Amino acid sequence: MPMLTIENLEVYYGMIRAIKGISFSVEEGEVIALIGANGAGKTTILHTITGLISPRSGKIDFEGHDLVKTPAHKIVSLGMAHVPEGRRIFPSLTVYENLKLGAYTRKDKAGIEETLKQVYRHFPRLEERKNQVAGTLSGGEQQMLAMGRALMSNPRIILMDEPSMGLSPLYVTEIFSIIKEISKEGKTVLLVEQNAKKALEIANRAYVLETGTISMEGKASEFMQNDLVRKAYLGE
Fold it and tell me: Residue 227 CB: number of other CB atoms within 10 A?
């Protein structure tokens, strides 16, 4: 039984059919990449899974829970975290305060402290800057903070929306190696990313999204060899 199953998902914006009956699944421990051009519907899918948008029809099952019927604020406590596009940190709070907010659904103080140590191990820079106001961090550091904050809820699956967007190549490399580390520790990752090459390098499987439909699916390693994918998404 997959950890996350999406079946026949239909999402509309007014009269516009943005997601056209797509189905896909995510197995526990996988890194799944959703790749596609701007406007293909990648972010809409993540927002629908996490309850920010209501689908017109279709099923979203997460470990036996029907997410379509679950309010957005309860989805975090089921073990799902979302790192949104554009980071969405709290700029006037410190790094430490942002991280603590990530654990707001948890009551286990010792566990929260343990998770904080893990986050600092992944992101030493956040520990160095824990008392700094988050809005003064660089773009790359803010992305690390958004990822760290998501990890603080101790999720079983993390949805990441364009983690490399607007970052320098150096930060992009660093962010992707951290995603790989997080996955090695047993977290499942659903990754939406325009940098298809980087996404496919760390993913197990991938889905190509074109204007609201899945046009291709398969092993990420096979996508890297596929001429169509290389031409359309890898800039070759």
Answer: 8
Residue by residue, DSSP assigns 124-146 as HHHHHTTTSBGGGS-HHHHHHHH
Domain 1-79+155-236: CATH architecture, name and number where available = 3-Layer(aba) Sandwich (3.40)
Which pLDDT belongs to residue 229? 84
pLDDT in tens, 45-80: 999 999 999 999 999 999 999 999 999 889 999 999
Q: Which residues pair with 207 in a beta bridge?
A: 34, 217
> Considering Cα of 187, then 97, then 46, then 169, what sign does the dihedral take?
negative
Instruction: Look up residue 194 and give its two tokens.
Output: 């325009």
Pairing of strands 80-83, 157-161: parallel
User: Which residue has 């239909």 as its token pair?
Assistant: 10
- Determine the longest span between alpha carbons in the chain, in angstroms: 51
Q: Tens digit of pLDDT for each residue in 178-220?
A: 999 999 999 999 999 988 999 999 999 999 999 999 999 999 9
Domain range list for the chain: 1-79+155-236, 88-154
The per-residue pLDDT for 198 is 92
